[in-house]
Automatic annotation (TrEMBL), chain A:
ABC transporter domain mapped to chain residues: 26-268
Name of the protein in question: Phosphate import ATP-binding protein PstB
InterPro entries: AAA+_ATPase, ABC_transporter-like_ATP-bd, ABC_transporter-like_CS, P-loop_NTPase, PstB-like
Name of the encoding gene: pstB
Family matches, as Gene3D superfamilies: P-loop containing nucleotide triphosphate hydrolases
Any one Gene Ontology molecular-function term assigned to this protein's record: ATP binding
Signal peptide positions (record): none
Entry keyword annotation includes Ion transport: no
Domain of life: Bacteria
TrEMBL record, chain B:
Pfam families: BPD_transp_1, DUF3708
Keyword Cell division: no
Protein name from the UniProt record: Phosphate transport system permease protein
Function in brief: Part of the binding-protein-dependent transport system for phosphate; probably responsible for the translocation of the substrate across the membrane.
PROSITE patterns the record matches: ABC_TM1 (PS50928)
NCBIfam families: phosphate_pstC
Domain of life: Bacteria
Domain called ABC transmembrane type-1: residue spans: 338-555
Membrane topology of this protein: Multi-pass membrane protein
Cell location: Cell inner membrane; Cell membrane
Keywords in alphabetical order: Cell inner membrane, Cell membrane, Coiled coil, Membrane, Phosphate transport, Transmembrane, Transmembrane helix, Transport
SUPFAM superfamilies documented for this protein: MetI-like
């Protein structure tokens, strides 16, 4: 790996020019992640726009999830992981010691590959965040939060009459929407999704994609996907990662129609990964 | 013995020969035919070796298991037939003897009288209670009658002995007559002395063991045993060798290029494995059935008052010496034992459940890998301490400490052997059990659930309390139930530390006794094997077995349904 010896900021990422329709929400610069001695990310510089969907693509093991977990400091929960560099959300440095990761995670929600509802009722799953963060001052307010969250996640009509049933009694696609509702309930600014549809069937996937498109109105969404078609369908911006490097970043259309780096071309035309 | 040893060696040799013969024949066949064997030559070798070895060893094993019994049966049958005329003469003499007949009639009469007395007693007890004077009088009367009957029995048996002696005297000692005398003597022996008689005769015949006596009758029996024994031994050994040779020859003719020796050997291997598990299952079944059978005998001995046994509050098995003794019902009330078991188990679980659980949570969620690496094995070492060590720890250290502490606090009746000390120490013993089972269960909670909670902004302890613990709860309940069944069945600690007194109490500072302790006391020392007292141990064992079985079934169900949910 000759690349890893090069200084982080000279990594030759190709940046397409972007029409700045939305302000920058998340700004990463020089982000490096190590698992014990193994470097998983090399000098990532990336500005992510608010109120849009940004897709991370790349062959598996290239560090997409690792970078995603930097944004809500989930890497803190891994003993061996060490993060360097700067990530700013709304110009506030989140890797600062003064920032409480617990509070940060209320602002940056996350949805995982496998639906992971808690072993609680549907209602309690959605009410969980508001409860631990003290967002509701009474039963009525909590009910309202649960209802709006479920509605935003497009699940309300299906579960309104069985809120007291366990969350894992739902189908896989419903569970994933429940988890999204759970994330929305604490009113986050950024929502991270790590391959949210890879455990779902095509119909459930379509529902989630629709939902992502709707959520774009109000949130900054970042989605990791291994499906290029999905990236093309739902995202406005796309970042291509390879072997821990950010190779190319730009508007989704341009990345897919006019990739400039050979590795991006190869990946998009299905030559590897 | 030596004969069968030599045979066994010969069988081993034949097996080895079979292997070599099978293999070389397979090779020769392949050469001649010029095509590939279905199975490797080694499998052909094993196939022939199995045919040579298995039937022969089976015969030898059958002989080892049943040989002695067959010989005894044949000889005893012969003795019985030889003794038939003596037996007939004896019975005739008894019937014609006035003293004997009179005693026999007296015994029967006293039996009737006592039965009537018991009927009367039941009415009196129903009317006036067990404690009344009338019952006392009846009890005294019963003792009198019993005494008279014992007397009559003595007279009868002494007279029978005299008559038998006269008959034996009249028979010459030599030849076939000796066998008749032996048969006659043997028939008159009580059951437990028959074993001794046979053992002595075998000792005289084969020199295995030392005879306790040496009488003409024993000599005659020994003389009868010898030829039967050698006939059967030679038969078995030659049969085994013959079978081995026949098997070898038979299997060799089977071999062919297309012969599936590999599959046949496979079949034998799977049959062997199945046999092993069958043995394990059958042994378990045998134990359960003997438990059941002896329990039924116990219940029969207490006139099927099963409810008295299960719900009676008075446990004093020592007092019911004679069956049918008036006013002694309730001695087998097992509730104090159940209560003692429950009390100690409760105390143990109050120690083991929180400590074990918290240790498991610490180890699986908080401890970093270095702490885990030594703390987990250290906890498991605790599980390797022999229970008897815990027992004397409870008896010599914890017990006195607790007693002194209770005395210091002003509790005058404090004793060393208390439910508390047994329970506390047992709790310590179960800690590793609870912690290692719970640790497994907590580790089985998928990481994605924890990630979900962290991603919602939950702290570590919130994640554990709100998400990990509820998810692991069914499994933890299962683990605790398994621990309870461990505690219920634990014996050594309670035998040493809890005392023997069958107190019905909820006071942990008193001595109590448990089901297991009572089983131990009932069965150790000199015991009559047919008394209800001894048999009650089996009934207690049955209760214990059913109890732990139910606990285990529930626990395994709970754990299993939990596993299914997350796999
Ligand atoms: N918890 C971890 N401990 C050690 N190495 C890890 C861990 N998580 C990921 N990695 C390594 O980091 C690299 C990037 O992984 P990841 O971010 O999961 O890739 P992606 O999501 O793009 O498939 C991989 O080489 C992976 O083996
Ligand atoms: Mg990933």
């Amino acid at each position: 790996m000759a690349d890893s010896a090069a200084p982080a900021h000279t990594a030759k990422t190709v940046y397409h020019s972007v029409a700045n329709t939305h302000p920058v929400k998340v700004a990463a610069s020089g982000v490096e992640v190590f698992y014990a001695d193994k470097q998983a990310l090399h000098g990532i510089n990336l500005d992510i726009q608010d109120r849009s969907v940004t897709a991370f693509i790349g062959p598996s093991g290239c560090g997409k999830s690792t970078f995603l977990r930097c944004i809500n400091r989930m890497n803190d929960t891994i003993d061996t992981a060490r993060v360097a560099g700067s990530i700013r959300i709304d110009d506030e440095e989140i890797n600062d010691r003064a920032v409480d990761p617990v509070l940060l995670r209320a602002r940056v929600g996350m949805v995982f590959q496998k639906p992971n509802p808690f072993p609680k009722s549907i209602y309690d799953n959605v009410a969980y965040g508001p409860r631990i963060h003290g967002l509701a001052s009474g039963k009525d307010e909590l009910d309202a939060i649960v209802e709006t969250s479920l509605k935003k996640a497009g699940l309300w009509d299906e579960v309104a009459d069985r809120l007291d049933q366990p969350g894992n009694s739902l189908s896989g696609g419903q569970q994933q929407r429940l988890v999204i509702a759970r994330a929305i309930a604490v009113n986050p600014e950024v929502i991270l999704m790590d391959e949210p549809c890879s455990a779902l069937d095509p119909i459930a996937t379509a529902r989630i994609e629709e939902l992502i498109d709707e959520l774009r109105e109000n949130y900054c969404l970042i989605i990791v996907t291994h499906s290029m078609a999905q990236a093309a369908r739902v995202s406005q911006m796309t970042a291509f990662f390879h072997l821990g490097h950010l190779v190319e970043y730009g508007p989704t259309e341009e990345i897919f129609t006019n990739p400039r780096d050979r590795r991006t071309q190869d990946y998009i035309t299905g030559r590897f990964g | 013995m030596q004969l069968s040893l030599i045979t066994a060696l010969a069988l081993l040799v034949l097996t080895a020969v079979g292997f070599l013969a099978g293999r070389s024949r397979a090779l020769a066949l392949a050469e001649k035919d010029g095509s590939r064997l279905h199975s490797l030559p080694g499998y052909h070798g094993y196939y022939v070796a199995l045919w040579a070895g298995l039937p022969g060893f089976a015969v030898l094993a059958a002989y080892a298991l049943a040989g002695t019994m067959i010989v005894n049966t044949i000889v005893l049958d012969r003795m019985e037939r030889a003794a038939e005329p003596l037996q007939a003469r004896y019975e005739l003499a008894l019937a014609n003897d006035d003293i004997w007949s009179e005693a026999e009639r007296e015994i029967a009469r006293l039996d009737d009288e006592m039965a009537a007395l018991r009927g009367e007693a039941e009415q009196v007890i129903a009317a006036e209670g067990v404690q009344s004077d009338a019952v006392e009088a009846l009890r005294a009367r019963q003792d009198e009658l019993q005494f008279a009957q014992d007397d009559a029995r003595f007279t009868r048996d002494a007279r029978a002995n005299t008559i038998a002696g006269d008959i034996i005297q009249a028979v010459p000692e030599a030849g076939d007559h000796a066998l008749a005398r032996a048969g006659f003597e043997f028939a008159r022996l009580p059951v437990q002395e028959r074993e001794v008689f046979l053992a002595d005769a075998r000792a005289l015949a084969f020199g295995d063991g030392l005879a306790s006596r040496d009488t003409p009758e024993l000599r005659a029996t020994a003389g009868a045993l010898q030829p039967v024994h050698s006939a059967i031994a030679w038969g078995a050994c030659l049969g085994a060798l013959g079978l081995a040779l026949a098997g070898l020859a038979f299997a060799r003719t089977h071999l062919a290029v297309r012969f599936r020796a590999r599959n046949r050997v496979e079949w034998v291997i799977s049959a062997t494995l199945a046999l092993a598990s069958l043995i394990a299952i059958l042994t378990t079944l045998g134990i359960v059935f003997s438990l059941l059978f002896e329990s039924l005998r116990f219940f029969a001995a207490i006139d099927w008052r099963v409810a008295d046994f299960l719900f009676g509050t008075q446990w004093s098995p020592q007092t019911a010496i004679r069956p049918g003794q008036i006013g002694q019902s309730g001695s087998f009330g097992a509730v104090p034992l159940f209560a003692g078991t429950a009390l100690i188990t409760l105390i143990a679980m109050m120690v083991a459940a929180p400590v074990g659980l918290f240790a498991a949570i610490y180890l699986s969620e908080y401890a970093d890998s270095r702490v885990r690496a030594w703390a987990k094995p250290a906890l498991e070492i605790l599980a390797g301490v022999p229970t008897v060590v815990y027992g004397f720890f409870a008896l010599l250290t914890v017990g006195p400490l607790l007693r002194d502490f209770a005395l210091f606090l002003g509790y005058e009746d404090a004793v060393t052997q208390s439910a508390l000390s047994a329970g506390l120490v047992m709790g310590v013993m179960i800690i590793p059990f609870v912690s290692s089972l719970s640790d497994d269960v907590i580790n089985a909670v998928p990481q994605s659930l924890r990630d979900g909670a962290y991603a919602m902004g939950a702290t570590k302890s919130e994640t554990i309390r709100h998400v990990v613990f509820p998810a692991a709860l069914p499994g933890i309940v299962g683990a605790l139930l398994l621990a309870v069944s461990r505690a219920v069945g634990e014996t050594m600690i309670v035998v040493m530390a809890a005392g023997q007194a069958a107190n019905l109490t909820a006071n942990p500072l008193e001595s109590v006794t448990t089901i297991t302790v009572q089983i131990v006391t009932l069965l150790t020392g000199d015991q009559e094997f047919n008394s209800p007292k001894t048999l009650s141990a089996f009934a207690l064992g049955l209760v214990l077995f059913v109890l732990t079985l139910i606990l285990n079934i529930i626990a395994l169900r709970v754990v299993q349904s939990y596993r299914e949910k997350y796999d």
